[in-house]
Amino acid sequence: MAKKTIAALKEYFRAGKRPTESQFSDLIDSYVHMDAFNPNAYLPLSGGKMSGVLSLGSSSATWISRDLSDISVNSNFARYFTKLTGSNGDIDSFGYYGAVTNTGSVTMSWGFIGGSTYNGKNAIRWTSDQRVVIGASASVIPTAGYALDVMGSTYIRGNVTFAGGLNTYQGVLQVQHLSVNKLRADNANTILSGASNSGTSGIFLRPAGDTVTTNQIIINANGTQYVDNYNLLFGSQPSTGASIFHTNVSGSNTPGYGIWMAHNLQFNGTDFIQPRGTLNSLAFTVNNHKGFSFNKANTSTTNGSVVSLIELVKISGTGVISTLNNGSSEQWNTAYGWGNHAGKYVPINHATPVSALPYQNDMLAVPVGTYVAAVSSGSPNLPFTQAGGLISFGNTAVSTRLLGARDNSDNLWFQSGDGKGAWRQLASRDWVITQLASASKATMSSAPARETNIPIKKEYEIDSAFYLELNDETEFITVTGNQPSDMICNITEVYSQQNIKIINLSTSSLIKLQIKGSSAVVIEPMKYMKIYITGNVKVINLGQFAVEVLA
After folding, report:
1. What backbone torsions phi and psi does residue 450 show, to the nearest 5 degrees?
2. Residue 320, CB-side half-sphere exposure with 13 Å CA sphere
């Protein structure tokens, strides 16, 4: 007795056949008897509940499927494969949402896991092109171009490894640790911040790796520095490098307390170091001990040598500029107060007489070269009883001996050029005083004559010809221009001790100043310019100033 197929059993009972006992036994054994049937071991075709485990078997090639191929009407569909239901309604579900045509062709919008419905808030949604969104709500699907789209904050317990870039297409990109901002970037700024304002914590830039502190830059509450605590280096060292460093060695002749900006120079905490020995070093400091100081170190010939700085220029706290070889600003100001005496003064050396160069300048100037020694008391024909009064200048062959009496002398004396003739008295003190008084009166009396013959002030205006030619000896002259196009003022002749003011009242046009036909300077719109003609007929530009129209 054995179980037979339906086709075999049908052969037993064809017309005209008489089934045997064993064939009847095969028929009975091939079907389940009601006493042996367990309905819980089978899935009903429709409805019902399964209390056991659904197993497809380890070697089964089948799967759970929902066939939509026989649909005959175009429609959207939402199909649940599983749904968790309680007495309080649907709790969780898994399925698909999409559309199907009347020929059974399916387009999937998304698949979903989690959430009570397909179009509510789902834990995970995915599309047919392998894009996934976590925490999607309503009908949101994964953003195009991204394999993973997380709607909301993400908490990760392990490491995160990126094969591509970390970016945000909107809002602010922020990477942080325990609510302390570490890296934050928006569309205008990138901010890298430390954990606190402590001097021992901060931002560490380590170009050689996370654990290598050599040549790192530390940014913290104490400042920015290399690990040697001295130099912030720029450029290739020692080829063309520059550096910024802070010194802390007191004294005006030493590094002092201050910040330094240097080329080919570094600081090791005690001394200055020259990275490249074949180049000079240059350095500027703003310094508690040295003030504003410009310095130089000559080549040492050996890379890395200790060098000493030479201070070239120093600015004191009171604004005095001192230089190594060219005096100080106090001396410059003194010379400026003398007026225009170019070539009229030379150093005087009475201690070491030398032969002077031939004198060829006018008598307003001191002779070129060094003075010959003062006349001694032993010289012949000396009209004084003690030395110190008379000097000579010229050269040793042909001299002019002149001038001067010693203190309290009433006379001026002269000796002929060869130094062999007798000294002659030129004038007495009383005669000189009389001549000076006479000259003073003559100068005063000449002023009214100038005022009578030549007006003190005149005013000219540039007319519609846009051109003014000026040749006037008047002491104070004012030129105004207010034309729609650029104007020209040509001073064809200059006269000593003149004050000329040129006023541009135009808001758009220029006044081009010419001196004897040659371009000199341009006066901008709504500005005025002052020029002065010196006694030796030099034209001085005193500057341009804004015009303010009061009425």
Report:
1. -65, -40
2. 9
pLDDT (0 to 100) of residue 156: 87
- Highest mean pLDDT, choosing among 10-14, 67-71, 262-266, 447-451: 262-266
DSSP 1: -
3-class state of residue 47 by DSSP: coil
DSSP readout, 319-372? --EEESSS-BHHHHHHHHHT-S-TTS------SS--PPPPP-S-TTSPPSSPPP
H-helix or E-strand containing 544?
Answer: strand 539-546
CB atoms within 10 A of CB 212: 10
pLDDT of residue 317: 83
In whole angstroms, give the CA distance from residue 50 to residue 46. 12
Mean pLDDT of 462-482: 92
**Mean per-residue pLDDT for 404-418?**
50
Q: What is the pTM of this model?
A: 0.39
User: Strand locations in 61-121, DSSP E?
Assistant: 75-86, 89-100, 106-113
CA–chain centroid gap for 448, Å, is 63
Question: HSE on the CB side for 46, CA within 13 Å?
Answer: 0
Q: Is 388 left (phi over 0), alpha (psi -120 to 50) or beta?
A: left
Q: What is the DSSP letter of 40?
A: G
**In 3D, which of 204, 198, 208, 200 has the Cα closest to residue 217?**
204
Tokens of 197: 């304002």
